[in-house]
Every structure is written in structure tokens, then in C-alpha cells.
Structure to design on (411 residues):
């Protein structure tokens, strides 16, 4: 049985979500932020939560300095390999940080880079000739065991791990990754162009990284966050490819509302929510033309609110009368609508119809309308406003008549 999360762990997770995904944090009232910082450090996620928690730790600024120094040394390595025609890609580290809202939020302890297997020995000789100090990976006699995935080096205080393959037990993707090295893409991170695998293969590496830590039983938050951020970014890119032009922040706000909505459903049972604007559309549209309500929902709605059924029926009858030009049916419709007491606004509408009954019947029977007159009035008002305070009424009259003459001649 899984243990319940402590107050400190809940606060840490809330802070991570707020920092990375823009959610409103719901911290426990008795949160001890000193304990949260202690919990975050071994998980290497203090940099993520630091911008939004009420306490500060000096190690965060030190981490930012290390991050910039690591990028600088990593860039020197990339340029060295490029100059010697050795293809390489960065694994994890910067390759994962590219998906974060701000790359420096992702803590990085070393530089993992992968070269093709047939270039591995060449890369070793190059590094050792350029001052990269051997650290680990070889046997005592200097040989490289077959089961070793990388050789470790150190230069200027930064650790480098040179990989000739990536996969661990139970997750073999090396053939895919090997081919992807030659399809590498450059991503700009804080001013440095970094070679990384294409997004799909990079996602496999991040998933494989989780697998490695599961096997060694030291899976941490950072590996899970890397995968979550990657998936979040890929979903956003997919939505954009389908035509979405909004921002990530807008999606986050929408998802936050959806989560709150889902929580309410969990508390109160499943319900279908139909917006009032959808109900209004049913007044002048057919059900099949209104996208946000189904036939089953419509029938359930009318069953729960029978007055709506009567209202929709009477309004559709009016719609039929108007567009069928059967003005003689209007009197009967008014009589029916007068008995619908459940909707006071409808009674006011009916009283208005009675007051102008002859004009309304004419409007139903004939195609004539005052649109032409209204258009002329609008044009006269525009001319008047343009000339306001500049000329006399006689000039206004002449300009209006001249405008009409020009219009008549042009048609």
C-alpha cells in the first residue's frame, strides 16, 4: 500500500506545478518552507521552485552560475568535435532543458554526449589530446569493457561523459538513436547552439533515462519532470500544427479550469453542463447545427425543464410563420403565446406585436424594408460629420445631391 504524502511533499509538488505549468498553488496551511527546501535539494529541483517560494537559498544562485559555466564548457566541446568531423548530440541535460519554460530551471551536473560507435575511439583520442582528464569507465589496463556505456572525463571542473551507446537493460533503442545522430537539430539555449536528437528520439532518451533509474532504484523527481515537460511541449506543438495560434499560458489556464471542473464533478457526481449561449442558439437554429449539445442531452434537458420545451416550440412556430410569409397565422400564434405564463419576457414581446400588428404582418408578407432609406440617412450623416463646422447648410445640400448624381451615373 502506497504511503500518503507528507505536508512537505505536497507543498513541494504544488510549487513545482506552479513554476512549470502556471497553476495556482494550493499549499497546506502548515507548510514548513525550510523543510520543503531540504526535500527539494536531494531531488535537484530547488532551482525550479525557487522563483515562487517565500524563502531563498544561496545554492540556487550558485546553481545558476554552474549552469552558465557548464554551457560554456559544453560549447567548447561541441566546437572541438565539429572541427574534427565527429558528429555528436547532447543527451539529457541541455537536451531536456530546452523544453522547460526557462532552461536554467533544470539542474545539470555534467555533460552527457553521444557519438557514433565507429567514431568512439577517435573521440577518446581527441579529448585526451586536448586536456580532458580521464575520470572513469576503463579497466586498470586502459581497456573499455563491452558493457560500459560511457567514459568519464573532467575539464575545468566540469564532468563529461562520452557515450558510444545509450540503452540500458530492457530498453534497447540504440539502433534508432544511432541513426538519429545524423539527423541532429540545433537548438538555441541562452545563446548557445546545441546539437540534440530530433524530438521523437529525444523523448525516447528521456523515457530510457527513467528506465535506468527505475532499474537502479533511485528514480527521482527530476527524471519524471523531464518527461512531463517534454510531453507538455509536444502536445502544444501538436495543437499548433492543427491550427492553434494561442499561447502556452492560455492552454494552462484552460487546463486549470478543466481540472477544477473535474474536481467538482468528483465531489458532486458526473453532470453535463450546457451553457446558456447554447440554449439560446436553439431558439434560431436546428439541433444538428448546434455543436455543443447532443440529441440525448437535449431530450434530457427538456425532460428536466418542461417549460423550455414549450418555449422552443412556440418560438419555432414564429420562425416558421415569418419565413413562410403566412401572416394570417400570426393571430393564432399570439393567442397561443399569451397562455405561456412561465416566461414573462414572452408576454412583453407579445404585447409589442399586438401594438404594431399591421406593420408586422406587412413585414412578413412583403420583401420591402426601410434598408434603402436607412442607408441614405447613414451616408448623409457621414457627409455631415466630415463637413461639421466648416461649411453652410447650402454646401451640405449641394454635396449630398452631387454624391447621389455621381452614384447614379456610375451605375
Amino acid at each position: 500500500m502506497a504511503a500518503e504524502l507528507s505536508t512537505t511533499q505536497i507543498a513541494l509538488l504544488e510549487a513545482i506545478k506552479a513554476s512549470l505549468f502556471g497553476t495556482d498553488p494550493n499549499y497546506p496551511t502548515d507548510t514548513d518552507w525550510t523543510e520543503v527546501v531540504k526535500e527539494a535539494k536531494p531531488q535537484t529541483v530547488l532551482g525550479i521552485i525557487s522563483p515562487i517560494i517565500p524563502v531563498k537559498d544561496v545554492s540556487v544562485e550558485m546553481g545558476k552560475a554552474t549552469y552558465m559555466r557548464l554551457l560554456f564548457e559544453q560549447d567548447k566541446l561541441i566546437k572541438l568535435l565539429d572541427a574534427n568531423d565527429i558528429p555528436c548530440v547532447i543527451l539529457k541535460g541541455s537536451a531536456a532543458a530546452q523544453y522547460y519554460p526557462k532552461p536554467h530551471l533544470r539542474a545539470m551536473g555534467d555533460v552527457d554526449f553521444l557519438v557514433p560507435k565507429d567514431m568512439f575511439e577517435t573521440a577518446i583520442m581527441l579529448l585526451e589530446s586536448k586536456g580532458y582528464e580521464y575520470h572513469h569507465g576503463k579497466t586498470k589496463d586502459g581497456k573499455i569493457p563491452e558493457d560500459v556505456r560511457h567514459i568519464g572525463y573532467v575539464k575545468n571542473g566540469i564532468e563529461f561523459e562520452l557515450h558510444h551507446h545509450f540503452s540500458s537493460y530492457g530498453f534497447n533503442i540504440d539502433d534508432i538513436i544511432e541513426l538519429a545522430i545524423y539527423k541532429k537539430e540545433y537548438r538555441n539555449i541562452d545563446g548557445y547552439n546545441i546539437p540534440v536528437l530530433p524530438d521523437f528520439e529525444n523523448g525516447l532518451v528521456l523515457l530510457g533515462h527513467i528506465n535506468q533509474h527505475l532499474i537502479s532504484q533511485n528514480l527521482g523527481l527530476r527524471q519524471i519532470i523531464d518527461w512531463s515537460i517534454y510531453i507538455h511541449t509536444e502536445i502544444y506543438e501538436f495543437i499548433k500544427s492543427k491550427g492553434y495560434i494561442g499561447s502556452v499560458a492560455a492552454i494552462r489556464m484552460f487546463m486549470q479550469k478543466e481540472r477544477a471542473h473535474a474536481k467538482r464533478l468528483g465531489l458532486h457526481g458526473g453532470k453535463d453542463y450546457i451553457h446558456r449561449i447554447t440554449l439560446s442558439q436553439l431558439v434560431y437554429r436546428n439541433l444538428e447545427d448546434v455543436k455543443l449539445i447532443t440529441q440525448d442531452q437535449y431530450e434530457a434537458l427538456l425532460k428536466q425543464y418542461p417549460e423550455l420545451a414549450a418555449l422552443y416550440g412556440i418560438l419555432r412556430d414564429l420562425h416558421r410563420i415569418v419565413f413562410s410569409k403566412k401572416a394570417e397565422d400570426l393571430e393564432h400564434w399570439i393567442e397561443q403565446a399569451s397562455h405561456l405564463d412561465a416566461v414573462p419576457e414572452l408576454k412583453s414581446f407579445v404585447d409589442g406585436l399586438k401594438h404594431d400588428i399591421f406593420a408586422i404582418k406587412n413585414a412578413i408578407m412583403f420583401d420591402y424594408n426601410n434598408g434603402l432609406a436607412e442607408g441614405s440617412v447613414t451616408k448623409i450623416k457621414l457627409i455631415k460629420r466630415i463637413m461639421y463646422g466648416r461649411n453652410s447648410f447650402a454646401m451640405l445640400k449641394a454635396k449630398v445631391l452631387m454624391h447621389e448624381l455621381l452614384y447614379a451615373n456610375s451605375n
Q: What stands out?
A: The beta strands are 89-91, 110-114, 133-136, 150-155, 158-163, 185-189, 192-196. The domain at 59-219 is CATH 3.30.460 (Beta Polymerase; domain 2).
